[in-house]
Design a protein that fits this description.
The structure holds 2 protein chains of 2 kinds. Chain A is mainly beta. Chain A has helices at about 5-10, 35-40, 115-120, 165-170, 205, 260; strands at about 20, 45, 55-60, 65, 85, 100-105, 110-115, 125-130, 155-165, 180-185, 200, 210-215, 220, 230-235, 245-250, 265-270, 285-290, 295-300, 305, 310-320, 325-330, 340, 345, 355-360, 365-375, 400-405. Chain A has a 5-stranded antiparallel sheet. A 5-stranded mixed sheet of chain A has the order 7-6-15-10-11. In chain A, strands 8, 9, 12, 13 and 14 form a 5-stranded antiparallel sheet that branches. Chain A is globular and about 70 Å long. The chains are: A mainly beta, B mainly alpha.
Chain lengths: ~400, ~100
């Protein structure tokens, strides 16, 4: 944010929209291998206002992914956290005039909470949790499917601090018969004919003690492009539910029928090993996406790195899932023939990235494929072949990193 | 009401500012290009077209254009739909 933008934001006016500064060209962007050709042609490292250079996939609305190198640290820095919007009108929000409206037919006492109300009048809770786009790794779908062609970086892990949604709903008072909590943020469509991005949660998930209205991310206010001044945090569930710039919450006695619930973010019924259900939104053929599937990422060594025969190779990475917690990570250094347990590292809770490591000696010359496979505490594991779906969701295929031993 | 109008105008201003700073995405010069730019770029940058190339066939681009009209309310007139689909599938797709 430059000085003029800062002054506008702090004096209550809506600041100018993001300045986009291209810092390198597409060829230099650390893109994941396996994306459609078009992604390599248009992607590049660019910095949005207040952000480091990230991998720009689309400009308007802005969709920027985090370069994989940032996942070597467990906490993703705020200014490197991925950015994902569906609709291009993204007003800057003035924290002084921002209000969170709590109402709807299922609320006994409507509330209009200021940021100070949220911070002072509700218990502050901190949770380390992964925020991952439903379509993370969509670009790796085979066959390719339309949409933003994400590589591995449409995710991040942060310490979120905020008020429990259940405490806010308790203060407002919930009427019997409430089945969904419907919520909206300030971002919206350029055309009035386009459905606004509005989402809902089943009441049971809204009342989960880990579901927060977060006003801090890694000890700082949320960046504009990650939902300033407050966003919903739904640990374990994909980021489509994590509404940015949230301004309204409504308790509803019926299934919300907006496009972004009924027409998007749905997965074929029975295709994935999903436990958590959103019963009021299910149909005979599909169901809303809910919790993240178990997954992992190798952060070292880098793809294509060269080693000498006999050299010690340290493999490192992260694993995460939909909130059951990681039980084990296994590593194969021979393209999936033999698997050995990795050592799990620091446990920041069941919603966070779990680090792991594995050490071996390079025993044979030539190319070697290193693979990692995470298993969660309810026994779910990553798949060897893609569970194809037209929107490219839930891609947790085991991915090899190839190194060269000389 | 007055406040709502002010906010709407500012929102429009912000959107215009984005558009003004946006580096234009140059699409291939072929019949239909102006129609595509006219109808698509109002809501999103045209890198959305290029990023989905070239794996989309005509059926895929047809579904995508219809989704823009039916789900997202794109004000594309019936007479222009065919030209848009043809342009996308020939220039940013498999052609067939």
């Amino acid at each position: 944010m430059d000085r003029r933008q800062f002054l506008q934001a702090s004096t209550g006016a809506l600041a100018l929209a993001p300045l986009s500064a291209r810092t390198s060209f597409a060829a230099d962007a650390p893109l994941t291998a396996g994306l459609p050709q078009g992604a390599y042609e248009i992607a590049g490292l660019e910095a949005l206002a207040g952000k480091r250079p990230l991998i720009k996939l689309t400009t308007r609305p802005p969709n920027y992914e985090t370069p994989a190198s940032y996942f070597s640290s467990l906490i993703t820095p705020n200014d490197a956290f991925f950015v994902r919007y569906h609709l291009a009108n993204i007003p800057r929000v003035d924290a002084n005039t921002w209000r969170l409206q709590v109402g709807g037919p299922g609320v006994e006492t409507p509330l209009a909470l200021s940021l100070a109300d949220l911070q002072r009048n509700f218990e502050a809770v901190e949770i380390t949790a992964v925020c991952q786009c439903s379509g993370n790794r969509r670009g790796l779908s085979e066959p390719h499917v339309p949409g933003v062609q994400w590589g591995v970086g449409a995710m991040g892990n942060a310490v979120w601090r905020g008020a429990r949604l259940k405490d806010i709903l308790a203060k407002a008072g919930l009427a019997k018969g409430t089945v969904e909590i419907v919520y909206n943020g300030t971002d919206g469509p350029p055309l009035t004919t386009t459905p606004d991005f509005v989402k809902s949660l089943p009441l049971w998930k809204a009342m989960d003690e880990n579901t927060l209205i977060a006003y801090e991310m890694n000890g700082q206010p949320l960046p504009h492009f990650n939902g300033f001044p407050a966003r919903l945090i739904v640990p374990g569930w994909t980021a489509t539910y994590w509404m940015k710039h949230i301004v309204s919450i409504e308790a509803s006695p019926k299934s919300f029928d907006g496009f972004w619930m009924k027409g998007a973010y749905r997965i074929p019924s029975g295709a994935f090993p999903i436990v958590q259900r959103f019963a009021t939104q299910e149909t005979d053929v599909n169901t809303p996406i809910t919790e993240t599937v178990v997954n992992s990422l190798i952060t070292a060594p880098a793809e294509g790195r060269r080693f000498q025969i006999g050299q010690t190779i340290d493999v490192a990475g992260i694993a995460w899932d939909g909130g059951y917690g990681i039980r084990a990570v296994e590593v194969s250094v021979d393209a999936g023939i033999n698997w050995r347990p990795a050592t799990l590292g620091k446990d920041d809770g069941r919603f966070a990235f779990r680090p792991w490591s594995y050490r071996f000696q390079a025993a044979a010359r030539g190319a070697a494929k290193i693979m990692a496979r995470a298993t969660n505490r309810i026994g779910q594991t990553q798949v060897e072949t893609l569970i194809f779906n037209g929107a490219g969701y839930h891609n947790n295929v085991i991915r090899p990193t190839t190194i060269m031993v000389a | 009401m007055k406040r709502i109008i002010v906010i709407s105008l500012l929102t429009l201003f912000a959107a215009a500012a984005v558009a003004a700073q946006e580096k234009p995405v140059v699409l291939k010069d072929a019949p239909g290009r102006a129609t595509v730019e006219n109808f698509c770029a109002g809501c999103h940058s045209l890198d959305y077209v290029r990023i989905n190339a070239p794996f989309m066939n005509k059926q895929g681009w047809t579904a995508e254009v219809n989704k823009m009209i039916q789900a997202f309310g794109a004000p594309i007139e019936a007479k222009d739909v065919g030209m848009i689909i043809d342009y996308l599938s020939v220039n940013y797709g498999t052609g067939g």
